[in-house]
């Protein structure tokens, strides 16, 4: 009970057209146009629900909100009380915000880094299947996880584990932690960095063939592949990464494991079984003995 999954992410972006091109032509992800109040928003359709990523035109590239889906109104009330007891100010979402997200209930607070974190009840099914660009079938099945890099890892762990009731799945000492809110290996990871940012968002795919087709399109369209095809050591997912127009990574992956209640958190050592070669220096790399 409580938070069920990662629901959506909103981004302020300076080049919406470049995002649309990357999502459509390269990754096979369709988009729709919407309005929230007076703002125009581009919504990325990763599955049958209304959207998973919202792009807001802006003069800066910054995270705007991270949205988590909560089981029920009573669980939303319970989590809001836990947040208030922990010193967070919880605010009711506006009618326009609820409508855009397809939520029946919406509340939000500001995390220790300064990001807006939303808790939503309800997901609006907008379609029976996703209308993808030519060559985009089959493709994404949903939004998998995000990785937040921050100088306040300890405070974020306290929020997500002690207040929001996420569980630690595994970690790499000294400062990279993978947390879950369901049976999926992780829905969020927290990493130490001098400046706060989203390190990456992961888009789930149904099969290695889907990931491979996206990889072929990325290479054919000269998309900036920032981390090559590979398999992670901890969740066993096979994926590659592209750098998006806002400067962070999108992970295109499949095959991540699920874990049970008897799972024991541990240091998983090396980051990859094979592959995942970085174009630029890996900020979370460790020297191996």
UniProtKB/TrEMBL annotation:
Keyword Metal-binding belongs to the record: yes
One Pfam assignment: Glyoxalase
InterPro entries membership: Fosfomycin_Res_Enzymes (IPR051332), Glyas_Bleomycin-R_OHBP_Dase (IPR029068), Glyas_Fos-R_dOase_dom (IPR004360), VOC_core (IPR037523), Xdiol_ring_cleave_dOase_1/2 (IPR000486)
UniProt KW keywords: Aromatic hydrocarbons catabolism, Dioxygenase, Iron, Metal-binding, Oxidoreductase
Membrane-spanning ranges: none
Domain VOC: 5-122, 142-255
Cofactor needs: Fe(2+)
Highest rank taxon of the organism: Bacteria
Family from the record: Belongs to the extradiol ring-cleavage dioxygenase family.
The name this protein goes by in its record: VOC family protein
Organism: Amycolatopsis rhabdoformis
């Amino acid at each position: 009970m409580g938070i069920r999954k990662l629901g959506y992410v909103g981004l302020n972006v300076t080049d919406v057209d470049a995002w649309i091109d990357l999502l459509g032509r390269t990754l096979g992800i369709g988009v729709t146009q919407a309005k929230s109040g007076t703002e125009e928003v581009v919504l990325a359709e990763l599955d049958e629900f209304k959207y998973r990523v919202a792009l807001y035109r802006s003069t800066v590239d910054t995270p705007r909100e991270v949205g988590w889906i909560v089981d029920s109104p009573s669980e939303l009330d319970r989590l809001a009380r836990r947040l208030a007891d922990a010193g967070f100010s919880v605010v009711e979402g506006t009618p326009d915000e609820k409508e855009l997200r397809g939520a029946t209930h919406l509340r939000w607070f500001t995390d220790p880094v300064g990001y807006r974190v939303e808790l939503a009840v309800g997901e609006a099914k907008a379609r029976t299947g996703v209308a993808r660009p030519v060559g985009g079938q089959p493709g994404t099945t949903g939004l998998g996880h995000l990785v937040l890099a921050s100088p306040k890892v300890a405070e974020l762990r306290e929020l997500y584990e002690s207040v929001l009731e996420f569980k630690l799945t595994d970690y790499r000492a000294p400062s990279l932690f993978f947390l879950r809110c369901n049976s999926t290996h992780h829905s969020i990871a927290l990493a130490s960095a001098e400046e706060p940012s989203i390190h990456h968002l992961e888009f789930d795919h149904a099969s290695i063939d889907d990931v491979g087709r996206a990889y072929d399109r990325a290479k054919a369209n000269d998309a900036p592949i920032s981390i090559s095809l590979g398999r992670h050591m901890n969740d066993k997912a096979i994926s590659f990464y592209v750098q998006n127009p806002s400067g962070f990574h999108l992970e295109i992956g499949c095959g991540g494991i699920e874990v049970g209640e008897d799972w024991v958190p541990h240091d998983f050592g090396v980051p990859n079984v094979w592959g995942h070669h970085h174009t630029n220096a890996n900020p979370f790399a460790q020297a191996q003995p």
